[in-house]
Write a structure and sequence with these properties.
By secondary structure, the protein is an alpha/beta fold. The protein is 38% helix and 15% strand. It has 14 helices and 16 strands. The strands form 4 sheets. A 7-stranded mixed β-sheet has the order 4-12-11-10-7-5-6, with helices on both faces. The protein has a 4-stranded mixed β-sheet with strand order 1-2-3-15. A 3-stranded antiparallel β-sheet has the order 13-14-16, with helices on one face. A hairpin with a 5-residue loop joins strand 2 and strand 3.
């Protein structure tokens, strides 16, 4: 198809996610571009006319090693000739076994049991249900409520929205939701005069301690996005919060759920973000990058103690949750290929060098009067823009595309989260595109 035909047919037949469709129509007061993509290679996406866009956000944070990565392609092609999928209830297969063993090993086998689904929101719901059911199976059914951080995002299904504190996604469905308790975020941007990020983390942990002291008897779990709260505008916090939260959850017999759907798989500089605090959660949720951005896959890892609470002769005491495509063989093989690349290429060390170059590329913007809170954690860099223009995100997005880069702000927060294959020249291009888009978006 040509660009024009692909756009026309897409707008007529496809209801796109997280999108006000009217904004893509020509009659809209400020129409947004709909980009037709026909192929990808490395960090680049190409339309039918051959124009290319540097994928500065890893296609919604999922792509780790570039589009059409030869090694992941080869693994999927090999698996396709063997087994595409089989029911995981009463059956098993080599890719899901090998993936489970390797993920458990990455936690030092502290989280030795893997339960699979297809997307991040499903992983959130699995962790919530497991925690709830654990307390029921262990004779404490009153522990049936959850705590979540202010500004936290954990998915958009009804169960996941219960622990999501982003009004744009949550409020329309409030009558359907059994809302969680919201505790203060350790977002370092909240630092008062003279405070450090560590001070903010300790202040938030003190508020959590007060909350748990009063409510722990009915709280099943606390769910957090370790180190970076994505939808809150890449809100970053000091690892001290995770250390203190872990200790408080232990003291008050509350599970700790680490949602690493977006921040796991090396995004923050370590394979697991929580590792920077030297802790282990009771439940670890992974998705997005776990399959290299190729196929829908999510997994919840948990402990022997949680697993043992469901191990019984009675079927009703088991964890009766399922997805038709649970543990899909193709997706698991893509994930294994992704882990192979981490192991063979020393990716985390290479990323440390790339993170420094991303910081250097964005450094000139930090001096601009409109730029606030420049920050970075590993391969995630962000800054806020002081503007009261509600159209700023759209203006920036359009201008970045004009500059040859896919950069999609979250409100007034501009961020970079490129694939790990991005090279020096491409990093420099992202910096130039961000600067050009910012200048264009601030010019009314």
């Amino acid at each position: 198809m040509t660009n024009d035909e692909l756009l026309r047919r897409s707008l007529a037949a496809v209801w796109h996610p997280c999108t006000q469709m009217k904004q893509h129509e020509a009659a809209s007061p400020s129409p947004l571009p709909m980009v037709p993509v026909v192929r990808g290679e490395g960090a680049w996406l190409y339309d039918a006319d051959g124009r290319r866009y540097l994928d500065g956000i890893s296609s919604w944070w999922v792509n780790l090693f570039g589009h059409c990565n030869p090694r992941i392609n080869a693994a999927i092609a090999d698996q396709l000739g063997r087994l595409e999928h089989v029911i995981l209830a009463g059956f098993t297969h080599e890719p899901v076994v090998r993936l489970s063993e390797r993920l458990a090993a990455l936690t030092g086998n502290a989280l030795g049991h893997c339960f699979y689904a297809s997307d991040g929101a499903s992983a959130t719901e699995i962790a919530l249900k497991m925690s709830f059911h654990y307390w029921r199976n262990t004779g404490r059914p009153q522990k049936s409520e959850f705590a979540a951080l202010a500004g936290g995002y954990h998915g958009e299904t009804v169960g996941a929205l219960a622990v999501t504190d982003v009004a744009l996604f949550r409020d329309a469905y409030a009558p359907l939701i059994r809302a969680a308790h919201v505790v203060p975020s350790p977002d370092a941007r909240q630092a008062e005069a003279g405070e450090t990020a560590t001070d903010v983390a300790r202040r938030a942990a003190a508020a959590l301690e007060t909350f748990l002291a009063e409510n722990h008897e009915r709280i099943a779990a606390l769910i957090v996005e370790p180190l970076v709260q994505g939808a809150a505008g890449m809100a970053m916090h000091d690892p001290e919060y995770l250390r203190l939260a872990r200790a408080l959850c232990d003291r008050y017999a509350v599970h700790l759920i680490c949602d690493e759907i977006a921040v796991g798989c090396g995004r923050t500089g370590t394979f697991f973000a929580h590792a920077q605090a030297g802790i282990r959660p009771d439940f670890l949720c992974l998705s997005k990058g776990i399959s290299g951005g190729y196929l829908p896959l999510s997994v919840v890892l948990t402990t022997d103690a949680v697993y043992a609470a469901f191990y019984d002769d009675a079927t009703a005491r088991g964890f009766l949750h399922s997805h038709s495509y649970t543990g899909n063989a193709l997706a698991c093989r893509a994930a294994l290929a992704t882990l192979d690349i981490f192991a063979s290429d020393d990716v985390l060390a290479a990323n440390r060098d790339k993170a420094q170059k991303i910081a250097a590329a964005l450094a000139p913007l930090a001096a601009l009067p409109e730029v606030r809170h420049p920050r970075q954690r590993g391969m995630i860099a962000a800054f806020d823009v002081a503007t009261d223009d509600p159209a700023f995100p759209h203006r920036f997005y359009r201008a970045a595309l004009d500059a040859g880069a896919l950069l999609r702000p979250i409100g007034n927060t501009v961020y970079l989260m490129p694939p790990y294959v991005v090279d020096d020249e491409e990093i420099a291009l992202l910096g130039r595109a961000a600067a050009a888009a910012l200048a264009a978006a601030l010019t009314r």
